[in-house]
Amino acid sequence: MSNSTTDDSLITTEVQTDSNDGREAPAAGTAVAARDLDVFYGDEQAIDDVTMEIPEKRVTALIGPSGCGKSTFLRCINRMNDMIEICRVEGDVEFGGKNVYDPDVDPVALRRKIGMVFQKPNPFPKSIRDNVAYGLKIQDFDGDVDQRVEESLKGAALWDEVKDQLDSSGLELSGGQQQRLCIARAIAPDPEVILMDEPTSALDPVAASKIEDLIDDLAEEYTVIIVTHNMQQAARISDRTAVFLTGGELVEYDDTAKIFEDPEEQRVEDYITGKFG
Amino acid sequence: MATENPNADGFGEVSRVRGIAFEYLSFGASVFGLVALGVLLVYVAIDAFDLANASPEWLLTYFLTLVVPFIVFCLYSANDRDVTRRALVALGGGLVAVAVLFSAIEALLVPIPRLNWQLAYLFVVAAPVTAYLAYVGSGGRVGAVGFGLLGRLVGGAALGLAVGTLFLVFDSLVWFLAYTLGVLPAVGLYAFGRVRESPRARTAATPVGLVGLTAAVFLRDVIATYPSDLIIYLWTIAVPVAAAGALLVADRRGRVAAAAVGGVPLAAATAGGFLAAGAGLPAPTVLLAIALTGVPTAVYVSRVVDGGEGLAGLGLPLLLAAGAIAGALIVEALGVPAPNPWLDASFLSEAPSRTPSEAGLYPAIVGSVIIIAMVAVLSFALGVGTSVFLEEYTPGTGPLGTLTRILQVNIANLAAVPSVVYGLLGLGLFANLLGLGIGTAVTAALTLSLLILPITIISAQEAIRSVPDDLRRGSDAMGATRWQTTKNVVLPEAMPGILTGTILALGRAIGETAPLIMIGAATTVFRAPDSLFSRFSAMPMQIYTWAGFPQADFRYGVVAAGVITLLIILVGMNGTAILLRNRAERGS
Question: pTM of the entire structure?
Answer without folding.
Answer: 0.80
